[in-house]
Design a protein that fits this description.
Largest sheet: 5 strands, parallel
Order of helices and strands: EHEHHEHEEHHHHHHH
Strand order of the largest sheet: 2-1-3-4-5
Strand content: 5-15%
Shape: elongated
Radius of gyration: 21 Å
Number of helices: 11
Helix content: 55-70%
Length: 218
């Protein structure tokens, strides 16, 4: 997956931080000030990179619409019907050809993958679900497992059978997940009910034994 970063020069450090977060999704991000050589043909390279990108990530601020380049880039992205992810650093809202898209307010000093998840999911929800299943599987604390599981809940209805079964499998194998209170009492039981029959029988037995400890009848 590739992203085109659209930003005004004054916000290039914020754009770089967002680009680093995109790397967590194994998404390469193009930044004009970093990747176009001084001797390169600026206009040609910009058009080529927008054409090649899957995502258009706009770093909106008071600076953004002072740049003719940013205005043109967003117009091209809208015309191409790209997946556009407007991230606002100061409350600035999308204008012009992208005015219909809701922006996400971010902390410019510490952008997070949560800021980008909805936009990336809009482009490829299956990709996001796979990424989140892996993230949940790597949880290292009860609270971390609960927080990670909460991220996948908005997309669980769009998960394939294989993805739900994989989620149950990683939850079975990681005690930080299946023993986390919210996971054991709220998140996992409905998934076991609908997809447990597709799990490995031994894994299902182990998971059900754990969940039974947390869901005893009063």
């Amino acid at each position: 997956m590739r992203a085109f970063m659209s930003y005004q020069t004054a916000d290039k450090e914020v754009a770089a931080r967002v680009a680093a977060v995109l790397q967590e999704f194994e998404c390469s991000a193009f930044m004009a000030h970093e990747h176009i050589e001084v001797s390169g043909e600026w206009r040609t390279e910009i058009l080529k990179e927008i054409e090649a990108a899957d995502l258009f990530v706009a770093i909106l601020s008071a600076n953004y619409y002072n740049s003719i380049w940013c205005k043109q880039e967003s117009g091209i992205a809208a015309y191409r019907k790209m997946t556009i992810i407007p991230l606002s650093t100061d409350g600035a809202i999308p204008q012009g050809f992208i005015a219909h898209i809701q922006s996400t307010k971010i902390d410019p000093a510490v952008p997070s993958h949560e800021d980008l998840l909805p936009g990336v999911a809009k482009h490829d929800v299956s990709f996001v679900i796979d990424w989140l299943v892996a993230k949940i599987g790597n949880s290292r604390s009860f609270r971390g497992a609960e927080a990670n599981f909460e991220l996948i809940l908005p997309y669980i209805g769009k998960a394939s059978r294989k993805q739900v079964v994989q989620l149950l499998a990683v939850s079975t194998d990681n005690g930080q997940i299946c023993h986390a209170n919210l996971c054991a009492t709220k998140y996992l039981p409905p998934l076991v009910k609908t997809h447990g029959k597709f799990m490995d029988k031994d894994a299902l037995r182990r998971l059900e034994e754990v969940l039974a400890r947390y869901n005893k009848a009063p």
